[in-house]
Predict the structure.
Amino acid sequence: MTFSLNPLAARIRTARWSETFPPAVLLSFLIVALVLAWAVAPGLFTSHNPASGVPADKLLGPSAAHWFGTDHLGRDLYARVVYGTASSVTSAFIAVVIGLVVGGLMGLLAGFLGGWVDVVLARLVDVLLAIPNFLLAVIVVTALGFNTTNAAIATGVSAVAVFARVMRSEVIKTRQAAFVEASFLLGGSRWHILLRHVLPNASRSVLPLAVLRFGLSILVIASLAFLGYGDPPPASDWGLLISIGKDYLKWPWLVYAPAFVTIATVLSVNRISRWLRKTN
Amino acid sequence: MRNAYLVYAAKRIVQAVVVILLTYVFTFIVVSILPGDPVTNVLRNPQNGFSEEEIQAIIAAQGLDRPIPVQLWDALSGFVTGDLGLSMRSGRPVATMIAEVLPSTLILASMTLAFSLIIAGLIGYGSQALPRKYGQGIVRGIPSLFLSVPNFVIGLLLIHIFGFQFGLFRVIDPNSFWATFFASVTLATPISAQIAEVLVANLDNESRQEYAAVARARGLRQVRLFFLHLLKPSSLPVVTVIALMVGEVLGNALITETVFGRTGIGSLVQRSVSTQDLPVLQAIVSLAAVVFVVVNLIADLVYPLLDPRVKLVGAVRRPTTADEGSANIPSRVVTE
């Protein structure tokens, strides 16, 4: 009996390529890749300056010259979206890393050690879950101060509980598996079992969760930016762009263009998460 | 059985009380110990224009000069006895401030719940009754679309279409029927999606059961099969999900009320955040936690009574063995 530690790789090797990657998943990967490219090298995708506009060109509709139109200061909206990507994507990434590391560690300790550690951590998770997710993010960002990094940290804190829960249940499930008992009997140390068996197995469901949370974090951070808890203008986070656009609803592309980018990104990320869960 | 239920109920109630108290302490620590020190941030902020005497008076009234643990103990015992303290900005009782805005949020929340159930029900029905290839595929995609749209975008979209283009309501009149209607629809979209996901999974599971096959073999039409047989067992687990969604409604109300310009709990949070009115924030967050914990407690207590298949193992709600493979009972993890 062999346990493949990486079922995804195994699946990709055996299945036909088009079965493993349905068109929707491929498209999702393409969109995410494009967004990441925007974040890394925004200058390659637009020649317009995101911070300074031409006042004469203000509030123009979408056109060949200005794909997403221009805002009230005559700035090219597409350039603003592209240049805002880095901040939106990085902060969502920070949030997921915080949730994953802190929550994962909590779940790992609770599930692996059990006993009073489990009880204490379980109550902490209950507390974190009892406060509405978005409200929790809001009070943490209030306590830390309003900027995008703190908004990311707050979003991460609000994700800790979910990661802890999933990690704990995965660890407990794995601990009871026959091959872990066998490893114990063969003289495997706790560390060995933790690193070689428990973590790789837990990652199977934690990885899709992390991807899912990445999409959700983009939404939460956009909401925080929308309420004005992120960096102030001239930053151009997606949520902030939509927030500015809402004062100009007569020129709806100011809302719809950045909203469309946000939705397409989150939808793609969620699709990838679902695909990861299935291939596992 | 009765006895097991009583033990289960008692343990759940004790646990709920502990969680509520711990949540209060946690919130207190977050708002008072982290860098945002209320005295320097709010009172000494020159924008607020408090004189030194006023500052001293507020510090004395709020007891801000005492050590943090003493403040915590005072606040906690006040909270337990129903005293939520005074606003740091206006000096008014926090309880009164909350009571003023509560009705508006309650209306919003109950309409949201109604819409969520209706939308989720429609999605659930569509997922079973529509033609398999195109109809079902589209309907089943709706929840993930709903969950990918920032909530405020839905609000802005509805305001733009129905407020500006069709002129159904005016933004300056947020309490009109249509404004409330669309605000609830906004709040309901992500909620309905999460309810629908669980509902569809359960409907799929039920429709694979033998009794459904028998009913089909007897020539029962899909409509009757859905309403007579599939809906009831599939909607039981939804009770748990709805209870979990209560927190989400309270949290998202903050955004929706801002977008639609409504006064309510959400806008009160927004105002207290921008003025750093910590007692108000502390009270609202703790009350939200109380509502969440109590609603979930009720759901957990009612559930075993509704579904006789649920066996209580060691005072924890577990599906019976026959049920185990079906993952009928959603875990309390919202996302999975």
Observations:
- The longest helix of chain B spans residues 222-260.
- The mean pLDDT of chain B is 79.
- Chain B touches chain A through 54 residues (CB under 8 Å).
